[in-house]
Design a protein that fits this description.
Elements lengths: L5 H13 L2 H9 L9 H11 L6 H11 L5 H17 L2 H9 L17 H25 L19 H19 L11 H30 L6 H30 L15 H14 L9 H58 L67 H21 L57 E2 L6 E3 L2 E3 L7 E2 L23
Antiparallel strand pairs: 1-4, 2-3
Helix pairs in contact: 1-2, 2-3, 2-4, 3-5, 4-5, 5-7, 5-9, 6-7, 7-8, 8-9, 8-10, 9-10, 9-12, 10-11
Length: 545
Amino acid sequence: MSGQSITDRIAAAQHSMTGSAISKAVCKATTHEVSGPKKKHLDYLIYCTNEMNVNVPQLADTLFERTTNSSWVVVFKALITTHHIMMYGNERFIQYLASRNTLFNLNNFLDKGALQGYDMSTFIRRYSRYLNEKALSYRLVAVDFTKMKRGIDGVMRTMNTEKLIKTLPIIQNQLDALLDFQANPNELTNGVINAAFMLLFKDSIRLFAAYNEGVINLLEKYFDMKKNQCKDALDIYKKFLYRMTKLSEFLKVAEQVGIDQGDIPDLTQAPSSLLEALEQHLASLEGKKTKELSADNRANTLSNAVSSLSNTGMSFSFSSSRMDEKEKQQALEEEQSRLQALKVGYNLSHYFLMPNLNSDLFDLQPAFIPAVQSTPISTASSAWGGYDALGDLLKPTVTVHTQAPIMAPHTGSKLLASDLDSSLANLVGSELSLHVFACRSDMQWTQPGEKKLTGGTNWQSKTMSSTTAWSPAPLPPAAMPPAAMPVPHMAPAPMAFPMTTPQVPVYGMMGGVPVMTQQPMLYNQPVLRPTNPFTPIPGAQMQFM
């Protein structure tokens, strides 16, 4: 399966109609396409978490709803999106997740109807457990271990003994859930699981860095602890050595799947003599007979162990800082390229009078994009006036035609959904055309060469109505008969579109009177319509052929 499914497109269209931009972004980030969520959708959701008027519970509930889908692709991408927002979004998002009684309940999830469904369902269950454990850790300590301050003056290095003994097991549980993902290089076969593995890799580096600093602080205080505290501290240190071994295996997988070697830290274990020294000290506190190390030997052993773990911590901190810098640089480059694309798109849209349709920024927010008009760009001598040197539209110029203009197909009844301005213009133009027909039916028109009627038994005077202000432009002197006088008229208000009057025979009281070729009427701006322009005029009838 590749590409967005029809269900994805329908769901996105529904969210567009309801105006829910967040739901639309979540839907687009969790499509059936077998690839990681697109960065532009993730960035938009992160931006939403930093806006105070955004409903964070609604965002989280939308993601939870996507995990109820039967497709492993949708569920996996919903988990990835949640994890990404927990890492880079506003802290109030993970605060809300930590306040919930239940999070992801995917322990029994299984997709039997898709390719790779069985294998990916296993990783979905493991991945959801880690996200649940990450939120639980925040509930217990009110801090994200991957974002806390590190270093000599960091949180874990300055924590007191009692709090340290309670905090380190919480980090162990979260790290255990992460390492239980257990993905082999042969199992990372698609973009979805690769995206999840990258997020887990980044969390493992930052989480173990905090874990390592807590253990260093624990060892420095070990020989000054009470018996019960020493017992708990020794158990924590043994588990720490076991998790260091599992983490080294996890990092080997990361190296095999193509992660940069510079981003993978080096693990340096403490000498085994430290564990012996810790066990002997606890035995002495319990009253057991054992070989007690001298103070100097114990100090040297502790110093070597702390130095080894400090080197490991520095390596992890350097890798974490390196990844952060690479992410910032990548984000900066993407922002520069996007601004350049917008600049080019703005120049093109200013020249062609249309927006840049290829910009990704218009993907999430509903934008009003007018349709491209099929009228070709004319020169400065055309009826539209053309463009000046700066690309601005010139005022229209009136062009005199001696022949009947070619009539375009009538499109007044077709309203373009994406071109509201053109639709309104066509509608108003149709009504004005009907109004002009009503006005002209009450006037006597002559063609070149005819004699002007001066009277007789069949001649009847016509009273000009107030609608003569809508009469067309006067004929040029060359086309007007010498005896004919131009019909007085008022200059119409300019309109923004040209309008031509079709040739139709008008039948009055005296019978059919041929209508001469009418000239196109050009307006610069909208005019005021008279009251009820379609009222029938006594003594005149209209008939359209």
